[in-house]
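Next up, sample data.

:::
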Amino acid sequence: MPQADGGSGLPLSVAGDVLRRLARGDSNLAQLVLAHFVLLDVASLASGPELRQTLHRVATGGGWIGNATAERGTAHVFDRRTSLRRDADGTATLNGRKYYATGALASSIFGVAANLDGDSAHPVIAFVRPGDAGVTIDGDWSAFGQRSTASGSVHLDDVPVPWTDVIDLGVQPADPPRSPVGAYDQLLHAAIDVGIARAALEDGAAFIRDRSRPWVESGVDRVADEQLVQHRLGRLRALVAALEALFERAGVAVDATRSAEQPDEEVLIAASLAVAEVKALAQEIAPQVASDVIELAGTSSADERHGLDRHWRNVRVHSLHDPARWKFVHLGRHLLDGTPPPKHPLI
């Protein structure tokens, strides 16, 4: 948040580092508050003064802001059926169904992505509260990882919304300008996968050192002295360190997008590409680390009471956010032909 609104005014990369550190301890908690940071950023760039003050009061008062963006059963991730109808009296009415609504259940207020009057070219974000009339939040989140994020369904049935609680993003042109928000959002998602990778590596190494037995053919008394295990863990350590370095570099690139009121197009492209590099690799490397440490730890590590499986479950579910395969495509195209990545926010 800007200092003028009661915030710290710290660079955006600080929020990324906070989430990375949180994810080392509890990746569910990190994901729960991710939308809080993103929606505060959107509000600072696009909302009116009344809504900005409302959200900042929530933030400085110890509350958090949740999200209800994604929908199931539509043609693609940006095909949204939720609609906000603007009424003649200056209010609005919200109807729709959302899923993956991380943070909404326990939030003070949450942002709902919708179309204005059913026009898919006119996006808005309507802010409602869990206790508002017509809002129903279901406990139907059943994923095998990130279980505590409660990222289930939100039903919105004729929910009244004051127009002052709406961010009107306007009718979008066929070729909209590139936004700095997407790279920031993706940086925060990358933070979770990078944090889990570090937690899996350290927890796995501790288990191997303190509890695992060496293989009978190794000729050593401690598994920590087994060179094959040392080699595998050393390689995983290098991979995680590389992820962290890429993450730090991506944070610098995201910060650069806010160094001027209207950042240069090349600065925005550089941020998207830097974030895509770390996020695409994290989506591959973090699950690998979380799986490999269990293999090296041996059969006893599969006992549920040790909880080593949580890192793999959590990162496998969270890393499904936005396919890495397309990020690599955009990175390759830019390398070969200088083709800029798409302008949508999920690069």
Notes: The first helix runs from residue 12 to 25.
